[in-house]
Amino acid sequence: MASHIAPADRHSHDGSADEVAVRLRAAGLSPTPRRRRVLEALAVQRRPVGAHELYVELTRRGHRVGVSTVYRTLSALADAGLVHVFVRDSETRYRLCAPGRHYHLVCRRCGGVQEHPAGDDGDWLDGVTAAGGFRPDPHQIEVQGVCGRCLRCQGDDPAD
Amino acid sequence: MASHIAPADRHSHDGSADEVAVRLRAAGLSPTPRRRRVLEALAVQRRPVGAHELYVELTRRGHRVGVSTVYRTLSALADAGLVHVFVRDSETRYRLCAPGRHYHLVCRRCGGVQEHPAGDDGDWLDGVTAAGGFRPDPHQIEVQGVCGRCLRCQGDDPAD
DNA sequence: CGTCTTGTCGGGAATGATTGTCAATATCGG
DNA sequence: CCGATATTGACAATCATTCCCGACAAGACG
C-alpha cells in the first residue's frame, strides 16, 4: 500500500508526492493524506472521472476515504481551477488540467478529452473577445465532436 | 399574448406557429399541442432554461402540461440537435439554436449565451480538426468566460 | 358507426448523484 | 501533554431527472 512513501516515488510523474502537495496548496488546501490520495488517483486518469468513480477506485485500493471527502476535494480543486470540470451522462467528471492555455477537444462518443494548446490561435481567441467585450477563460474552451479513434472504429458518419 | 394565433404572427419570428411545427417535425416529433407549447415557451427565452423552470412557466400561464412531457420534448429536441444543451448549477438547460455554424460564448456569471458566427474562423476550426483526426461539431463549441455586461457591472477582476 | 391500434400524456414513485449535518478524530502551536 | 482548529466520514436530505403505467386522443379499418 501507500503506507511507506519511498523515495522511489520521486520521479517527475504527475503523481509525484511533491507535485501533489504543491497543487493542493495552490488550491488553498493543506495537503492531508486523503486529499493527496484523491488527487493522486485523479492524476493517473487520462479521461475525466466522476467523484463516485474515484471513490470506488480508492476504496478498492484499500484506501479508507469517505465519499464526502472525495466530493469536497474535487470541488475545491475545480474552484481553484486546477482541475477541469466536464459533465457527461448527468455526472460531473474531473480531469487534472495541464498548466498553460489550451482548449479541450471532447469526444461525445467515448468521453475522452484531448488538450489542444492555444498559442498560435491567439488571434481567433482575440476575435472572440472582441465580440461584446466577452472575456474568455483560456482553460474553458470546449470543442465537442468525435475523436479520431472513435471515427475510425465506428464508421464515418453514423446516424447517431 | 400567444392566445390568438392571428395571421399577424406570421412574420419570421422564432415563435411562429408554422415554424414551431416545422422544427418539431425536424426532430421526428409530431407537432402535438403540448410539444408546441414547450417549444414556444423555449423560443421566447434568450438564456438557456431548465426543464423544470419551463414547466413552471407553462403551468403559470395556465397551460396544463406534465413534467414528463417537458423533459421528454426537450430531450428529443436536443437529440435532434435543434436545441443546444448547457449545464449550469447541476441543472440541464436548453436553448433554441439558430441554424448555421456558430460558437457559444457562455458567461459563467450570469449564464447568458451569445452566439458567435463561425464562418471566417474556419481556419482555426480546421486546425483543430487536424489534431488527431478530431471532428468537431460545429454547433458544440463552447467558450466559457465572463460576458461584457457582467465585467462592466461587477468590477474588472474579482477574486471569484 | 363502433372498435382497434398506436402514439401521447400526466401523475407520482423511483433513481441516483450530490450536498448538508455533526460528532469523532487528527493536526499543530505552545 | 493541552486546547484550538481543521479535517474527516457515516448517514440523512435534497433535488433534478427518469421510470412506470393507466388514461386518453386520433386515425385506420371493418
From TrEMBL, chains A, B:
It comes from the Bacteria. SUPFAM superfamilies: Winged helix' DNA-binding domain. It is found in: Cytoplasm. Pfam families: FUR. InterPro entries: FUR, Fur_C, WH-like_DNA-bd_sf, WH_DNA-bd_sf. Keywords: Cytoplasm, DNA-binding, Metal-binding, Repressor, Transcription, Transcription regulation, Zinc. Its main location: cytoplasm. CDD domains: Fur_like. Belongs to the Fur family. Homodimer. This is Transcriptional repressor. It comes from Actinomadura vinacea.
